[in-house]
Amino acid sequence: MSLWAALAHPMATRFAFWRRTEEYALAEKHARPGLLSDFILGSQDGLVNVLGVILGVAVASRDLANPLTIVLAGGLAATFAESISMGAVAYTSTLARRDHYLAERQREEEEMREMPDMERQEVREILERWDFQGEELEEMMERIVSKPKAWLELMMAHELNLAPVDARQARKSAVIVGIAAIVGSLIPLLPFIVIGPNILLGVIVSLAMSTLALFAIGWWKAKTTIGRPTRSGVQMAIIGIASAIAGFGIAFLVSGGNVV
What is the Cα–Cα distance from 179 to 106, expressed in whole angstroms? Predict the structure, then answer.
């Protein structure tokens, strides 16, 4: 075996190992947590928005003959409008991320052709961050820049910190966000369906159930990713309920400042 082969083999093995590690990390980052974030986004947004609508409608319709019908109609209308809207936003935003990645990839390819010396220096800086030094660094850099595909993927991932976005991910995100929005929206509605015409009791139970649901979402998020579950749950509940109560406060003031 030649000296070059003896040097190249361990370096190639080392680089391949790091490359696989990065690919696994990207897969974890853009698959499981991506789906988790989609579900959290949809469920939290659906719950908070519909809760705000329900509380506002409950206050504004308290003097009507059948306020429960108004509350349920407003809540269900908001549920499905929110679901469609959130799904559409998830779809278009994912496509926008994909378009951004493709545009940056094209720009990077042009820079590799037109400014190769600068791009080689950027590869060198990336390898230095990975503790490559001296002759090993130079040899590894030459091996990378000799493979345009590997060179391009390295720059996209470690210079621009961008990961490819599959076109199918847009549809998947839209479905998950839309379904999660419906699930979250139904939580504040259920007490009114079960309790019936007692609007005040429905408001109290709806607030309690929504608070518990938001806490559970925050707790689950921290448990499956990183952070303190209890703290995350409390933060999620406080932010969500505060947003929903804003709708209640506006309707309370507009309707004359009287309690349900």
Answer: 35
Q: Is residue 260 part of a domain?
A: no
For residue 34, what are the contacts with CB-CB under 8 A and spacing of at least 6?
169, 173
Range of the domain at 243: 3-254
| Ranges assigned E (strand) in 34-169 | none
Residue 113 makes CB contacts below 8 A (sequence gap 6+) with: none
In angstroms, the CA 259 to CA 82 distance is: 27
**Amino acid (1-letter code) at residue 99:** D
Dmax over CA atoms of the chain, in Å, equals: 92
Domain count, the chain: 1
CB 124 within 8 A of CB 141: yes
Nearest Cα to 130, choosing from 233, 2, 36, 11? 11
User: What's 259's DSSP letter?
Assistant: -
What is the pLDDT averaged over residues 221-229?
80
Has residue 220 been placed in a domain? yes
pLDDT of 257 reads: 55
Residue position matching structure tokens 């080689």: 120
- Other CB atoms closer than 10 Å to residue 202's CB: what's the count? 27
Whether 114 shows a pLDDT value over 80: the answer reads yes
CA distances from 42 to 2, 10, 221 (A): 59, 47, 13
In a domain, 259, yes or no: no
